């Protein structure tokens, strides 16, 4: 287990609390973990992601995808077609979170039934819902 205290590594002091805050910030946001979960399964197009995440708005999905891309956790590929096709996929850096995703899955399988259910509607309702 890694201590949250300052550690010395080759003369450089590392404050693990600050480092973990940076790590948490990469994945904080109402939708980022859900987006990462989906992209960990396969490549998605924008419209597919929007349909797969009930309650997310187009604006919020765009903002979250841009942040994840800027942080190097997902990649965006634009195909020169008419109409343009855009695909999103998880990067090798983000695949390093696979063990974390597996641990969360195992935890949920063990304890998820004990967590009280909450309404699933988040954000605005999608048009036509």
UniProtKB/TrEMBL annotation:
One of its GO terms (molecular function) is DNA binding. SUPFAM superfamilies: Winged helix' DNA-binding domain. Keywords: DNA-binding, Transcription, Transcription regulation. InterPro entries: HTH_HxlR (IPR002577), WH-like_DNA-bd_sf (IPR036388), WH_DNA-bd_sf (IPR036390). Residues 18-116 form the HTH hxlR-type domain. This is HTH hxlR-type domain-containing protein. It comes from Cupriavidus basilensis. The lineage of its organism: Bacteria, Pseudomonadati, Pseudomonadota, Betaproteobacteria, Burkholderiales.
């Amino acid at each position: 287990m890694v201590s949250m205290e300052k550690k010395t590594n080759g003369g450089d002091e590392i404050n693990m609390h600050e480092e973990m805050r940076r790590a948490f910030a990469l994945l904080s946001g109402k939708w980022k973990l859900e987006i990462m979960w989906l992209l960990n399964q396969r490549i998605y197009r924008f419209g597919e992601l929007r349909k797969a995440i009930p309650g997310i708005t187009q604006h919020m999905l765009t903002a979250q995808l841009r942040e994840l891309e800027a942080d190097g956790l997902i990649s965006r590929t634009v195909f020169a077609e008419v109409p343009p096709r855009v695909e999103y996929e998880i990067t090798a850096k983000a695949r390093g979170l696979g063990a974390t995703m597996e641990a969360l899955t195992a935890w949920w399988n063990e304890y998820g039934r004990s967590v009280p259910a909450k309404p699933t509607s988040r954000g605005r309702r999608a048009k036509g819902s």
